[in-house]
Specification:
The protein is mostly helical and about 325 residues long. It is built from 15 helices and no strands. About 75% of the residues lie in helices and about 0% in strands.
Amino acid sequence: MNVMRISPRNGGYGVINIRRTLSAKVSRPGKSIARQGMWAIGFLSIPSVVILFFLGVPVAWGIYISLTNLALTGVDALHPSFIGLANYSHLFTSAAFWLSVKASLEYLIGSGLVGQVGLGLALALIIRRIPVGFRQFLMGLIVLSWVIPEIVTAFVWSSYLQTPGGLFDVVIGVLGFAPQSWLYKDPMTFLVIANVWRGTAFSLLVFGAAIEAIPRELIEAAKIDGADGFSLFGRITLPLIRNSIATALVLITLWTLSDFTLIYVLTTGGPGYATDVLPVFIYQNSFAYYELGYGTALSIILLLIAAGLSLIYLRLVGRDY
């Protein structure tokens, strides 16, 4: 480094002062970055501790409860015993548990993945081609079904599908068909339809916002190069909304796997085990059969299934996660 020399008349401190000034200018940014990093760690530690306390502690307590024979009533309610992995051994060898997992996956694939995500994406692509005035009206109708409380939606669909006298029977009667016990004949299909009707608005809003954020210049340039509708969707739209798709998949999967109210009101898990999804199965074992330890073990398995599916979605679809 070339340093300007100062004559002795200035006291001979010119070189030292310049070197100190340059050294201070070089060292300040590093100290500033380190200080900012410490502040960032401090601020992030506060919500981390809160999340750990309100999420980690209940999960840890739930894992402990799942290793006991805790009951809702009786001696085991006051003095539960530690039984290790007996609850997990019991559920993995239970045919009812696997039927419940099967019903949950059917409900998830039908109403969550194919229904809400697939239909929501299709509607988002279609609605953007509709004139603005009618588009806003249509969006309002679709969102209305989402903001209605779930318990209200459940009773609306229950009255709609009841036999005899339900609105669905009246409509098909006009068309010349005989009334049927719809929730007994094909309960899962109508549960899927009801949940798709209720929840598609969320994915529609997510995908609609993501599609609107795509720069128009990219679309116009692709059209000039001769790209058709399928090429535009596969090469431009789909890659640019991958993160939105991953977000919708994770949230809709979590909501669908934990859905209880709609199913319990419409079918109570029946007939048989046809709609006995895991949340209903957990409720029955915990509060109908009074086996809280076993029900908690089922809850931990449901948590692991939801977490595993979420990680798979983020791995396969998400790009920036």
